[in-house]
From TrEMBL:
<dbReference type="InterPro" id="IPR000362">
    <property type="entry name" value="Fumarate_lyase_fam"/>
</dbReference>
<comment type="pathway">
    <text>Purine metabolism; AMP biosynthesis via de novo pathway; AMP from IMP: step 2/2.</text>
</comment>
<dbReference type="GO" id="GO:0005829">
    <property type="term" value="C:cytosol"/>
</dbReference>
<comment type="function">
    <text>Catalyzes two reactions in de novo purine nucleotide biosynthesis. Catalyzes the breakdown of 5-aminoimidazole- (N-succinylocarboxamide) ribotide (SAICAR or 2-[5-amino-1-(5-phospho-beta-D-ribosyl)imidazole-4-carboxamido]succinate) to 5-aminoimidazole-4-carboxamide ribotide (AICAR or 5-amino-1-(5-phospho-beta-D-ribosyl)imidazole-4-carboxamide) and fumarate, and of adenylosuccinate (ADS or N(6)-(1,2-dicarboxyethyl)-AMP) to adenosine monophosphate (AMP) and fumarate.</text>
</comment>
<dbReference type="GO" id="GO:0044208">
    <property type="term" value="P:'de novo' AMP biosynthetic process"/>
</dbReference>
<dbReference type="GO" id="GO:0070626">
    <property type="term" value="F:(S)-2-(5-amino-1-(5-phospho-D-ribosyl)imidazole-4-carboxamido) succinate lyase (fumarate-forming) activity"/>
</dbReference>
<keyword id="KW-0658">Purine biosynthesis</keyword>
<comment type="pathway">
    <text>Purine metabolism; IMP biosynthesis via de novo pathway; 5-amino-1-(5-phospho-D-ribosyl)imidazole-4-carboxamide from 5-amino-1-(5-phospho-D-ribosyl)imidazole-4-carboxylate: step 2/2.</text>
</comment>
<keyword id="KW-0456">Lyase</keyword>
<dbReference type="InterPro" id="IPR024083">
    <property type="entry name" value="Fumarase/histidase_N"/>
</dbReference>
<comment type="similarity">
    <text>Belongs to the lyase 1 family. Adenylosuccinate lyase subfamily.</text>
</comment>
<protein>
    <recommendedName>
        <fullName>Adenylosuccinate lyase</fullName>
        <ecNumber>4.3.2.2</ecNumber>
    </recommendedName>
</protein>
<dbReference type="InterPro" id="IPR004769">
    <property type="entry name" value="Pur_lyase"/>
</dbReference>
<dbReference type="Pfam" id="PF00206">
    <property type="entry name" value="Lyase_1"/>
</dbReference>
<dbReference type="InterPro" id="IPR047136">
    <property type="entry name" value="PurB_bact"/>
</dbReference>
<dbReference type="InterPro" id="IPR020557">
    <property type="entry name" value="Fumarate_lyase_CS"/>
</dbReference>
<dbReference type="Pfam" id="PF08328">
    <property type="entry name" value="ASL_C"/>
</dbReference>
């Protein structure tokens, strides 16, 4: 069977491919190759500006050509690197060969079976860059290129795709919180009627949690290292023993690649920041999973209706149903996302001695964890956009549960020194409903000041909401 959206093993590249498109240029294998090209070029350009006798500063034209190779990288270029890798059996070496080929140098004879590439390069630029060809990948171990590429990929995915998607969700929830800030709603603790709140305040609680979670995601420093085979600049110093390679590496990583320099590593950057990032995303996902389940319950209680779309079917046999499928879809995909993200966070900081390749294997699944996360955000947002509040149902629930006012009544009784207020209200209300009339009769018979009694008699389940509306408006 040929590979297509219908034959893809993962729904991220099949059924839901369109919803994860934004991540594909960044976190796919072609995206990985593209970022490796960017890193190799940045390193080469920095070497040309370092003042070494053996590599002169590049002309503006030569540097512009290298920039263009990085900027104009295509899927066809990725396919060419993949074809070279089929011979090298080494992905980073394949990128090095592709770069040399891109400046007009022939591939080794073992690649004679590959069709020649047509290059339109000015001869003088070709000569200049070919003279510096052996400084491509100079003193680097593959992990110098890979860890910085992963860092750039993660930073781009986080900043341009994941955080904007999360912030769009937060904006929608904030809108719902403000619109329903003063709409009274019966709370349920342990699934049972509890002190009233407002619908807007309950949504505001989630907004506050997600805002903190988004800050944690954004605050993770994305690290990088370019310090050789075991982190000590051994090869670098063998060629130029008097050069400050640590300062050079820091400059490339921070100024050219936009990452944070990590001076202490083994062969690999230890991936602790990745664990922090994946844990932070998983934490946001858990908050959202909690919201999905609550919205599901509120729909089942009738607090929300769902706007229907012409032609859609809720159930194959029960035409009256409008199932909360978006929130169910979001919940399921958040579970898939967190399973991957948590494994990445637990596994990646662990490496045998100075290096083993288990990290390389699992790092190829970053797109899976982020993809399921993005899919879940999209599903939740679609569900939120279909919701309609049902004020009548909320009001009915409140009117049917006057027993929730036992809390303010016994609190006022405590203020005025009436003995055993909790026990008196417990006897009156526990495990059974109580009518408005019965509660008012109880209050009327209390030996408390008349103004306090009037305040209690004016209370209803719908207006006993504390500062819920104020809090919801503030979010």
């Amino acid at each position: 069977m040929s590979l297509s959206a219908l034959s893809a093993l993962s729904p991220l590249d099949g059924r839901y491919a369109a919803k994860t498109d934004k991540l594909r240029p960044i976190l796919s294998e072609a995206g990985f190759m593209h970022h490796r090209v960017k890193v190799e070029i940045a390193w080469l350009q920095a070497l040309s500006a370092a003042g070494f006798a053996e590599i002169k500063p590049f002309s503006a034209a030569a540097s512009a050509l290298l920039d263009k190779l990085a900027a104009d990288f295509t899927e066809a270029d990725a396919a060419r690197i993949k074809a070279i890798e089929a011979v090298t059996n080494h992905d980073v070496k394949a990128v090095e060969y592709w770069l040399k080929e891109s400046i007009g140098l022939p591939l080794p004879s073992s690649y004679a079976h590959l069709p020649a590439r047509t290059l339109n390069i000015d001869a003088s630029i070709t000569e200049e860059l070919q003279g510096a060809a052996e400084f491509i990948h100079f003193a680097c171990t593959s992990e110098d290129i890979n860890n910085t590429s992963h860092g750039m990929m993660l930073k781009a995915a986080r900043d341009t795709v994941m955080l904007p998607a999360l912030q769009e969700l937060v904006a929608k929830l904030t809108e719902i919180a403000h619109a329903n800030a003063a709409l009274p709603m019966l709370s349920r603790t342990h699934g049972q009627p509890a002190s009233p709140t407002t619908l807007g305040k309950e949504i505001a609680n989630v907004v506050a949690r997600l805002q903190r979670a988004a800050k944690r995601i954004a605050a993770v420093d994305v690290l990088g290292k370019m310090n050789g085979a075991v982190g000590n600049y051994n090869a670098h110093l063998s060629a130029y023993p008097d050069y400050d390679w640590q300062a050079f590496s820091r400059n490339v990583i921070e100024q050219r690649l936009g990452l944070v320099f990590n001076p202490y590593t083994i062969q690999i950057e230890p991936h602790d920041y990745m664990a922090e990032l994946f844990d932070a995303v998983a934490r946001a996902n858990t908050i959202l999973l909690d919201l999905n389940r609550d919205i599901w319950n509120y729909i089942s209680l009738g607090y929300f209706k769902q706007r229907t779309k012409a032609g859609e079917i809720g159930s194959s046999t029960m035409p009256h149903k409008v199932n909360p499928i978006d929130f169910e879809n979001s919940e399921g995909n958040l579970g898939m996302a967190n399973a991957v993200l948590k494994h990445l966070a637990e596994k990646l900081p662990v490496s045998r001695m100075q290096r083993d390749l288990t990290d390389s294997t699992v790092l190829r699944n970053i797109g899976v964890g982020f993809g399921y996360t993005l899919l879940a955000y999209d599903s939740c947002l679609r569900g939120l956009n279909k919701l309609e509040v049902n004020p009548a149902r909320l009001a009915d629930d409140l009117e049917a549960t006057w027993e929730v006012l036992a809390e303010p009544v016994q609190t006022v009784m405590r203020r005025y020194g009436i003995e055993n207020p909790y026990e008196q209200l417990k006897e009156l209300t526990r495990g059974k409903g109580i009518s408005k009339e019965a509660l008012r009769e109880f209050v009327s018979g209390l030996a408390i000041p008349q103004d306090a009694k009037d305040l209690l008699l004016a209370m209803t389940p719908a207006n006993y909401i504390g500062i819920a509306a104020e809090l919801a408006h503030k979010i």
